[in-house]
Design brief:
191 residues, alpha+beta, 5-stranded antiparallel β-sheet, 3 helices, 36% helix, elongated
């Protein structure tokens, strides 16, 4: 039995493999290959980045346009409420929402407090409602957004015409720029 075990032991002497000259990649070939790979990957990555940036900008512009239009509608509603109540048609607007001292509007509160002086930066807040699976942009409660909304009302023709200027501004997520949407609307004393 010992004979059988001895015969099965193999001689495991290391083989030497001599290196051939000019085999494998040189440093220059490796650098060229990496440069080509880098150039091939740069295009799709740049395209993806630009697509994400454009989508983000479009999203923010859409929200800003809706916030600006909402402010114009609230100023119109305030004008209409003043006329129906027999007050001055610009009561609560003129002198409150002036250049240098803009006001803010909040559609989620009573009309008597919806338009008031903006103290500070007029940041729009967002409050999510889990029950309805939706949310509201407002100025009183919620999480600060990137948007700031300012409203200015100037009387163009005394007792007849006023100009509403709503500016919604925000800081871009992908660029160190501040973007803005500005709406200018003229309202009239229809009474």
């Amino acid at each position: 039995m010992q004979n059988i075990l001895k015969t099965k032991i193999y001689n495991l002497a290391p083989n030497s493999y001599p290196l051939k000259p000019n085999s494998g990649f040189s440093l220059l070939e490796t650098l060229v290959a990496l440069a080509i790979l880098n150039a091939a990957m740069l295009g799709p990555i740049t395209l993806a980045y630009n697509s994400i940036r454009s989508a983000s900008l479009s999203h923010d512009k859409t929200i800003a346009a809706f916030l600006a239009e909402e402010a114009v509608e609230l100023v119109r509603a305030k004008r209409d409420a003043n006329i129906y109540q027999g007050s001055n048609w610009l009561d609560g607007l003129l002198g409150v929402c002036v250049a240098g001292n803009p006001c803010l509007v909040d559609a989620t509160v009573d009309m008597s407090t919806a338009i008031r002086l903006c103290a500070g930066n007029c940041v729009v807040k967002y409050q999510y409602d889990a029950f309805t699976n939706s949310g509201f942009y407002k100025h009183q409660a919620g999480v600060d957004t990137v948007f700031s909304r300012q409203v200015v009302v100037d009387e163009v023709t005394a007792g007849k015409e006023a100009k509403i200027t709503v500016t919604v501004s925000w800081k871009e997520r992908f660029l160190p720029l501040e973007s803005k949407v500005e709406i200018e609307e003229h309202i009239f004393n229809w009474h």
